[in-house]
Amino acid sequence: MNNDLRKRIKDIKKETNQDARFEKYADCVKEYYNYYATVKLSMNYYTIKEMVGERSDISSEVIKHLADVTALLKTYVVSDEEVSDSDIALIKKIRGDVERRMQILTSYTDGYETYEYILNRIEAGIKKQVEEVDIDELSSKVFQYIFSNNDKVVINSKLQLVMSQLPVRMTKAKFYDVVTNTLNIYKGGDKKAAADFVDMLEKTTLIDLPPDFEQEYPMLYSVYHKLKDTDYKQVDAKAYDSLCDELSGAVSFIENESTFLVLFQEIVNDTFAILLTNGMKAINTSKNGYQSAVAIISACTDDKIIDMEDKTIMDAFISIEGVQEELLESVYVLQTMQEEFMASIGEDEACSGDAFWLVSTLDKLLSTSLFISLEEDTDLSGVADGDYIAKLREMLTGKLTELFDSNPMIVNRSIMCKLLSAMPIFLNSQQEIKSYLDYVLGNCRDMSELTACNRLLNELIEEE
Length: 464
Known about the structure:
Layout: H1 3-14, H2 18-54, H3 60-78, H4 85-126, H5 135-146, H6 152-163, H7 172-184, H8 191-204, H9 213-216, H10 218-229, H11 237-276, H12 281-284, H13 290-300, H14 311-319, H15 323-344, H16 354-365, H17 386-405, H18 409-422, H19 430-442, H20 447-463
Helix pairs in contact: 1-2, 2-11, 2-13, 2-15, 2-16, 3-4, 3-11, 3-13, 4-10, 4-11, 4-18, 4-20, 5-19, 5-20, 6-18, 7-17, 8-17, 10-11, 11-16, 13-14
């Protein structure tokens, strides 16, 4: 943290008037967030220009979004214009569309994982590679792996990893008991936390699909539809290899597309932050690395390929080395101060106007949660009492029942396994965990599945 910010923070803390104190704080936030966003964007924008030049599979709509962002940067960073409401609306719309696309890709990832689980477990039988598995030995090894560390966080993390690979030998009634017990954890807490948890489970199982799931990525939907419609009891070696190849290709596409969209969303967030703090440009012009960042952005907004042999551009990159890291420390300090204001806002409404909205929005835009909602969900305020939890349980189990009724057992077991690995651990003691391991492994009569579990669980253990 530089001396200027250190002095200003001391001045803010000395201020006794809440309105004046927050006004000074908000000025600091706008200034330093604008500075930080500009420097960070300059490096990311150069990277994404390279990615666009190397790839031919980026959708035309995303390329159009990138062109729109380029136009905004030309207007408000390279040039110096007053930000219009229409351009704020445009960057907000772009951000929402990138988020929608990521939601679709996440849904496909969840769907593919359900069928990858199945493919893994039928492989040994199809390829005649079934092996004898010592159940007692495997159960003991997994138990020792889970409790090789005394840290509760580590133990829970390992348990969830193990749950994602264990056979599922559980009745629907027992599974719903687990769901009920998990939801009861949220009783007395925030309604939003409980609703978000149920929403996560519904998205994980593809009960709740994002808009345009079927239309946005036709290739991904075709592969998903084929996996969903396959009768896995009738799959032979040729069909198995074909399904695996198509799945692998789809997963590779998702990885490439997600990598691009994550970087693009970071650029969109920084652009949004710059537009919201456009009045700080004149103040930041003289600061270390700012003009160099603007020079890089200016070069990137040109349609031509950036010439890294250009001494001006090279010097610009050299001059911003380390600047982002220094600014990040200042951002962290300002974020901590915001938490202090948040703690007092319930008692004092002086910070509840436009200035507070701006500070809160900037904090979200520059957070590590790139796809965080910028809107507060006021409909879900309050405490999750017993009646609210009961309604959530009834709604969720009703949807799960419909889902289970529409699928064969092999798919339902995969879905249950995926959900169990996403929920807080429902086993309360080491003895319960050991008994559960013995039970599910000992009652797995499918030798192909048991072979796969043995391999996958041992891989987990060996990676430690």
